[in-house]
């Protein structure tokens, strides 16, 4: 695992966007796995700026969602589908058929999970997966104690994650769904390159356990230690317990 310490979130976003731009020059139709949350926004902003400046052509890029809430009405602004469309797909000017994600409103959620896991393989696999990290060490929505071999499946959120994410739902925890679909840890580990960005003091403990702790289901992000090509980009605050 490679750990890169940068000055701040903007620098981290620019560094990772540079890496994505390099990938797109080598492989214009690369499949980019994208995470949601506040942390990766500087990556998407920096990549969009590069595309608009003409320094990279992302018109053939394909985008794959990492996870999704279950049960939000179609088009809900805080569904991860809406979020990825707004933050990544539309700014990059990509057509809807360059975007794939799990169906959080499916009647048969289990079948939707299996279908998405298979769709990722059929698409050739994720070339570069962007990850954030939860304060409890989760990646995607793989909460502590998720199997390190898990596949895309339905999960129940911990109270901590629902509290953390209430800020996207008018600070009202009752609006935060209890259930989600997430790529499993085993699914995530199949991406060719994993890039985790963590910024801010609040992530310092989770980052230390991810990078320096044992590989453990209690800290799902520690599974990155098992991957042959994993990069962890942290700002100085998130690196403060390393
Ligand atoms: C959610 C997402 C994760 C993300 C995490 C941290 O739980 N499912 O993919 O990494 O939030 O979000 P933030 O970057 O806003 O702290």
TrEMBL record:
Pathway: Amino-sugar metabolism; N-acetylneuraminate degradation; D-fructose 6-phosphate from N-acetylneuraminate: step 5/5. The active site is at residues 67, 136, 138, 143. Keywords: Allosteric enzyme, Carbohydrate metabolism, Hydrolase. It catalyses: alpha-D-glucosamine 6-phosphate + H2O = beta-D-fructose 6-phosphate + NH4(+). Pfam families: Glucosamine_iso (PF01182). Residues 10-226 form the Glucosamine/galactosamine-6-phosphate isomerase domain. The keyword Hydrolase applies. Its EC number is 3.5.99.6. SUPFAM superfamilies: NagB/RpiA/CoA transferase-like (SSF100950). Allosterically activated by N-acetylglucosamine 6-phosphate (GlcNAc6P). InterPro entries: Glc/Gal-6P_isomerase (IPR006148), Glucosamine6P_isomerase (IPR004547), Glucosamine6P_isomerase_CS (IPR018321), NagB/RpiA_transferase-like (IPR037171). The record marks 146, 153, 155-156 as: Part of the allosteric site. NCBIfam families: nagB, PRK00443.1-4. Belongs to the glucosamine/galactosamine-6-phosphate isomerase family. NagB subfamily. PANTHER family: GLUCOSAMINE-6-PHOSPHATE ISOMERASE (PTHR11280:SF5). Catalyzes the reversible isomerization-deamination of glucosamine 6-phosphate (GlcN6P) to form fructose 6-phosphate (Fru6P) and ammonium ion. HAMAP family: GlcN6P_deamin (MF_01241). This is Glucosamine-6-phosphate deaminase.
């Amino acid at each position: 695992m490679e750990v890169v310490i940068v000055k701040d979130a903007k620098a981290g976003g620019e560094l990772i966007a540079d890496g994505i731009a390099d990938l797109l020059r080598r492989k214009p139709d690369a499949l980019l796995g994208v995470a949601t949350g506040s942390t990766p926004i500087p990556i998407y902003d920096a990549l969009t700026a590069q595309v608009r400046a003409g320094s990279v052509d992302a018109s053939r890029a394909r985008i794959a969602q990492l996870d999704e809430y279950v049960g939000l009405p179609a088009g809900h602004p805080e569904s991860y589908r809406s979020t990825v469309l707004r933050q990544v797909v539309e700014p990059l000017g990509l057509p809807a058929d360059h975007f794939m994600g799990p169906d959080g409103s499916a009647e048969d959620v289990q079948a939707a999970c299996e279908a998405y896991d298979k769709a990722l393989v059929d698409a050739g696999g994720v070339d570069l997966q962007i990850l954030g990290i939860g304060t409890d060490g989760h990646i995607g929505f793989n909460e502590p104690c998720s199997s390190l071999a898990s596949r895309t499946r339905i999960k129940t959120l911990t109270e901590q994650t629902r509290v953390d994410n209430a800020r996207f739902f008018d600070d009202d925890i009752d609006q935060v769904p209890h259930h989600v679909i997430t790529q499993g840890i085993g699914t995530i580990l199949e991406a060719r390159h994993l890039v985790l960005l963590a910024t801010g003091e609040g992530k310092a403990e989770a980052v230390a356990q991810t990078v320096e702790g044992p590989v453990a289901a209690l800290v799902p992000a520690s599974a990155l230690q098992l991957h042959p090509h994993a990069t962890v980009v942290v700002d100085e605050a998130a690196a403060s317990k390393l």
